[in-house]
Design brief:
The protein is an alpha+beta fold and 164 residues long. It has a single domain (14-163), classed as Nucleoside Triphosphate Pyrophosphohydrolase (Alpha-Beta Complex). The chain has helices spanning 14-37, 78-90, 144-147, 154-163; strands spanning 40-50, 53-59, 65-66, 69-71, 100-109, 112-123, 136-142. Strands 1, 2, 3, 4, 5, 6 and 7 form a 7-stranded mixed sheet that branches. A hairpin with a 5-residue loop joins strand 2 and strand 3 (65-66). The longest helix is centred in the N-terminal third of the chain and has 24 residues, at 14-37. The chain is globular and about 45 Å long. It starts with 13 loop residues before the first helix and ends with a helix.
C-alpha cells in the first residue's frame, strides 16, 4: 500500500476532529431511521484506476473501505453526484465523460434499499488529491487481489473483481 500524493496538510485539526464526531453521530441516527423506515437511497461511487491499482478511501464514520462517492442530492443524476463527491472528498476535478458505468444495483444494506451506481475511471498517472480529514480520513492504492482480503463495501468489491 502506498499513500497517494497529499496536500501539505499533514493530519486532522481540532476542527476536523469535531466534524468527525458530528459525522459519526449523524450516521448512527441515519442508520436508526433506515431500520425504522426501510427507505430507498441512491448513491454513486467512483473507482479510480491507475496502473492496475484502485484508490480506496475510508470515511471517518465507517469501519470499512469504500470508493470516493456518496448520496445523490435532489434532482442530481449519478454521474453528476460522482463528480461532485470527487471534488468534495478529494479535491479532484474530473471530466464526467471519463466515467464509465461499471456496476449498478439495488441491495439491502444497513436497513435500507440501497441503489448504487459504481463508475470506473482509468488514469495514466496518480492524481494529486487532498483529504478533507473530516469525512475522508484515509486513501490508499490497492491491487485487486488485496481488495478481496479487506473489509470493503460489498458491491464495490464485486465491481473491482469484475474490473480485474
Amino acid at each position: 500500500m502506498t499513500l497517494p500524493s497529499r496536500s501539505p496538510k499533514l493530519g486532522p485539526t481540532m476542527g476536523d476532529l469535531a466534524f468527525q464526531l458530528g459525522y459519526a453521530a449523524a450516521y448512527r441516527m441515519l442508520r436508526t431511521y433506515w431500520r425504522l423506515r426501510n427507505p430507498t437511497t441512491h448513491g454513486a461511487l467512483v473507482t479510480i484506476w491507475c496502473r492496475g491499482e484502485v484508490l480506496l478511501v475510508r470515511q471517518s464514520y465507517l469501519p470499512y473501505y469504500s470508493a470516493p462517492g456518496g448520496y445523490l442530492k435532489g434532482g442530481e443524476d449519478a454521474r453528476a453526484a460522482a463528480r461532485r463527491e470527487l471534488m468534495e472528498e478529494l479535491s479532484l476535478e474530473i471530466d464526467p465523460k471519463k466515467l464509465s458505468l461499471a456496476l449498478e444495483l439495488t441491495h439491502q444494506w444497513e436497513g435500507k434499499h440501497d441503489h448504487v451506481a459504481i463508475f470506473s475511471m482509468e488514469l495514466a498517472e496518480r492524481p494529486n488529491i487532498t483529504l478533507d480529514y473530516r469525512e475522508v480520513v484515509e486513501a490508499f492504492w490497492f491491487r485487486p487481489e488485496q481488495v478481496q482480503a479487506l473489509d470493503v463495501f460489498p458491491p464495490l468489491k464485486r465491481a473491482i473483481a469484475q474490473h480485474a
